[in-house]
Amino acid sequence: MSTRLSPAAFATLLLIALMMGANHVAARLAFDHGVDVLTAVTFRSGVTALVVGVLVFLQAVPRTLTPRHRRALPAIGLLIALQSFCLYSAVARLPVALALLAFNTYPLSTALWARLLYGHRPERRVLLAMPVLLLGLALALDVLGAASGLGAAAQWGRIGAGVAFALTASITFGLALVWTQHEAGDLDGRLRTATTMGLVGLLALSAVGTQGGFHWPQATPGWWGLGLLTVLYGTAFTIMFTVLPRLGVVGNSAIMNVEPVFALGLAWVFLGQAIAPVQLLGAGIVVGTVIWLGLRR
């Protein structure tokens, strides 16, 4: 079971969740003012790779890679690049909180990939969570179009592409987590992150060239969005690798899964995005279920 968190550790985890949620709100602000997904992914990943790479150097992190690491890291980088592209594509098409809620089904994807690739039987808690998580997601997304009054067909015409991107991000992230655990889990997290983010940045940069170059903001709010999404993402990762280890927090904590809740509030304040009460209920079910899963042994 998760260890008892100190007040400082708890506050730090909430801060990281807040910054990650704010990062996606800033991304939507940038997308609404001319920035495209590849430009956002390139800047976010490149700056994060640089910042964490500096940490690797300053903290004298061992940088020796085994042949297994050299095989695994490019695949992980490719998966995270695809996940980043798909999640930001979902954020560009859906209310930010709903995109993150759909993405937060990744614990189910993780269990599925672990079963398919390594023969791990899903835990009983995961099996119990599956229908609850999917029910909450269905309510949050208003899949029948009842809250919007559009009906199922019109509602899916409006959200279908965004949901597809978010679920693809969930599936690829689940695969990346399983692959990382089994093929690169013994590698220092700082080195693994710097390498992965560097690969993501290079892949996104190469794709930018095929799309006619960067798509810059067309108005001042877009520049704020691009700058903030880059700073918030890089800062959150820096805190994760510098502050949390000193506070005794090992690995990821379920508390950080409140990110969609922060995104919901920030998107309402800064983007004017609001969802119906039944969708709020669904969001609460999703977040609560994911936190419950994260607290398992």
UniProtKB/TrEMBL annotation:
Position of the signal peptide: none
Protein name: DMT family transporter
Annotated organism of origin: Rubrivivax albus
One Pfam entry name: EamA
Domain of life: Bacteria
Bilayer topology term: Multi-pass membrane protein
EamA domain ranges (all copies): 12-140, 162-293
Location in the cell: Membrane
Main location as per UniProt: membrane
Record InterPro entries: AA-Vitamin_Transporters, EamA_dom, EmrE-like
Keywords: Membrane, Transmembrane, Transmembrane helix
Residue spans crossing the bilayer: 37-60, 72-90, 96-114, 126-147, 159-179, 191-210, 222-242, 254-271, 277-295
Protein family according to the UniProt entry: Belongs to the EamA transporter family.
A GO cellular-component term linked to this record: membrane
